[in-house]
Specification:
By secondary structure, the chain is an alpha/beta fold. The protein is built from five helices and seven strands; from the N terminus they run αβαβαβββαββα. The strands form two sheets. It has a five-stranded parallel beta sheet with strand order 2-1-3-6-7, with helices on both faces.
Length: 128
């Protein structure tokens, strides 16, 4: 998928980025913005992400790191699922480390190219 079609699919989409590593979060945010997404965050903590979701803020898709400074992000994944918001895990965890209930969630294994993830995101999450 080229930048133009990815950009059209993500134009004006609000993508939540939950990532605690500053440089990875910043790179992801810039890659998503480059193709037209409006980035919400990046948010480095599970509780802050849950508070944002509870606030009713519009989110169209999300990228979640599984481990946020020792806290797992699965409560955020559950909140997104309850709201019908598609998401992808961007993580250093291998597939065997993810609980069975999340096996169907797309997973991008670190290290990865933030630009490649941003371009692939519309297809991964059903065109957001």
């Amino acid at each position: 998928m080229g930048n133009s079609s990815a950009g059209k699919a993500l134009a004006r989409c609000r993508v939540l980025v939950v990532e605690d590593e500053y440089f990875i979060a910043d790179d992801m945010a810039r890659a998503l913005q480059k193709i037209g997404a409006e980035v919400v965050g990046p948010i480095p903590k599970k509780d802050r992400a849950l508070a944002l979701l509870s606030s009713g803020e519009q989110i169209d898709a999300a990228v979640l790191d599984i481990n946020l400074r020792g806290e797992e992000v699965f409560a955020v994944a559950d909140a997104l699922t309850e709201r019908g918001i598609p998401f992808v895990f961007a993580t250093g965890y291998d597939a065997s480390s993810i609980p069975p209930s999340y096996k169907g969630i797309p997973r991008w294994e670190k290290p990865f190219s933030p630009d490649a993830l941003a371009r692939a995101l519309p297809g991964i999450v059903g065109n957001a």
